[in-house]
């Protein structure tokens, strides 16, 4: 159980050599669900993009491959995640097309209305205060900009039973276990418009997105 606890917390805030291994592994494990999520929204070549909880940086590199004339930022509160993200994206960083910063979603280090799209893959369920954190994402979005959330951990999903078991064993700490409808409500209550939630139950995938009012 303590190994499971340690592994889960290595996903919440990767640290040390085990954290590094986990980050490289998550870059691989989360790639397909991320591709599926990114296909749901439109991304233009000149867009300014942010990936929150960027982990090992693979989503940042996917975004940079689309926004070839734009700029992509990654933010993560783990020093280890920032280090691995920088390695994953070293060429684009050298070219000035990608920047990675160490910060929490609670206080994003960007001015208001900066981004066309903010993404968050496999991270929001760890955030400390979802309503406030969604407001912070809203703040940095341009009017008409989109917030896209991608995850495999949600209530009622394919992995629900396993997650409930981990919760009972107190293996998971500070974990937001939301249903599809609760995700929709969170977007609506924050003030996002055109909110959509898509579930691919057989894969255990969910993605949700909404637009900041123009
Ligand atoms: C499960 S990993 C997912 C990483 C990456 N997005 C992916 O799909 O592979 C969760 C990441 O979110 C980051 N994270 C968790 N809570 C955070 C917070 N409050 N602010 C910023 N980053 C956070 C963790 O440090 C970790 O790198």
Describe the structure.
The longest helix is centred in the N-terminal third of the chain and has 14 residues, at 16-29. Helix 7 (130-140) packs across helix 9 (180-190). The protein has one domain: Vaccinia Virus protein VP39 (Rossmann fold, 3-Layer(aba) Sandwich). Helix 7 (130-140) links the parallel strand 4 (115-121) and strand 5. It is globular. With 214 residues, the protein is of the alpha/beta class. The model has no long low-confidence stretch (mean pLDDT 92). The protein is built from 9 helices and 7 strands. The chain binds S-adenosylmethionine (SAM). The site of S-adenosylmethionine (SAM) has 24 residues, from helix 1 and helix 2. S-adenosylmethionine binds next to helix 1 and helix 2.
Labels describing this entry:
Rossmann fold, seven-stranded mixed sheet, binds S-adenosylmethionine, 214 residues, 41% helix, 9 helices, alpha/beta, single chain
Query: What is the arithmetic mean of pLDDT?
Result: 92
Which band does the percent of strand residues land in? 15-25%
Order of the strands making up the biggest sheet: 3-2-1-4-5-7-6
Tell how many strands the DSSP assignment holds: 7
Fraction of residues in H or I helices: 40-55%
Bound molecules: S-adenosylmethionine
By CATH reckoning, the class would read Alpha Beta
SS field, number of helical segments:
9
Fourth-tier CATH superfamily name: Vaccinia Virus protein VP39
CATH architecture: 3-Layer(aba) Sandwich
- Summed up, the domain count is 1
Shape: globular
Distance between the termini: 48 Å
Largest sheet, described in full? 7 strands, mixed
Poorly predicted ranges: none
Task: Kindly report the CATH topology.
Answer: Rossmann fold
Task: Report the structural category.
Answer: alpha/beta
Gyration radius, in Å: 16 Å
The ordered H/E elements are HHHEHEHHEEHEHHEE
């Amino acid at each position: 159980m303590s190994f499971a606890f340690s592994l889960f917390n290595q996903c919440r805030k990767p640290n040390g050599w085990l954290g590094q291994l986990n980050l490289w592994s998550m870059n691989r494990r989360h790639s397909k669900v991320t591709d599926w999520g990114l296909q749901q929204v439109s991304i233009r070549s000149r867009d300014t993009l942010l990936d929150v909880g960027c982990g090992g940086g693979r989503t940042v590199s996917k975004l940079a491959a689309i926004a070839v004339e734009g700029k992509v930022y990654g933010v993560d509160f783990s020093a280890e995640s920032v280090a691995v993200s920088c390695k994953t994206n070293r060429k684009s960083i050298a070219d000035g097309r990608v920047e990675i910063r160490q910060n929490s979603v609670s206080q994003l280090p960007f001015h208001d209305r900066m981004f066309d799209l903010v993404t968050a893959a496999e991270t929001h369920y760890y955030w400390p205060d979802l309503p406030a954190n969604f407001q912070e994402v809203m703040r940095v979005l341009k009017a008409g900009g989109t917030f896209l959330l991608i995850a495999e951990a949600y209530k009622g999903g394919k992995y629900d039973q396993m997650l409930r078991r981990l919760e009972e064993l107190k293996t998971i700490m500070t974990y937001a276990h939301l249903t599809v409808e609760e995700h929709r409500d969170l977007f609506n209550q924050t003030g996002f418009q055109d909110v959509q939630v898509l579930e691919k139950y057989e894969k255990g995938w969910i993605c949700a997105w909404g637009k900041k009012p123009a």
